[in-house]
Design brief:
Blueprint (H helix, E strand, L loop, with lengths): L8 H7 L14 H14 L13 H13 L2 H11 L33
Helix pairs in contact: 2-3
Protein name: Transposase
Organism: Croceicoccus naphthovorans
InterPro entries: IS402-like_dom (IPR025161), Transposase_6_like (IPR052909)
């Protein structure tokens, strides 16, 4: 069984109205690329560490960069949040936090307690 993430048919149908129109040359498979973008971001990977099943890492990065700058991902989030509800402000945060392994040890230094 694979640990890769794949968007379902239902998810793709909900997302499709928010995709920009393709001009000229057809886009690479949207499901494969978007699933790869979700996988990379969800697992905190570098683009070049994306599994080959999602296609070239450069394709994933280019789509993420272009669609991010064009506001496509913002429109997707706003559109999905508005389905069945009144419009609300939606905020997306791409903060990535990492704690060092020694951060969990609560040592008392110089007579100062953690109370």
């Amino acid at each position: 069984m694979s640990d890769l993430f794949w968007l379902t048919d239902e998810q793709m149908e909900r997302l499709r109205p928010f995709f920009p129109k393709s001009h000229g040359k057809p886009r690479v498979d949207d499901r494969r690329v978007l699933s790869g973008i979700v996988f990379v971001n969800r697992n905190g990977l570098r683009w070049r560490d994306a599994p080959g099943a999602y296609g070239p890492h450069k394709t994933l990065y280019n789509r993420w960069k272009r669609w991010g700058e064009a506001g496509v991902f913002t429109r997707i989030m706003e559109g999905l949040a508005a389905v069945g509800a009144e419009p609300k402000t939606v905020m997306s945060d791409a903060t990535y936090l990492k704690a060092h392994r020694t951060a969990s040890s609560l040592r008392v230094k110089r007579g100062i307690s953690a109370a």
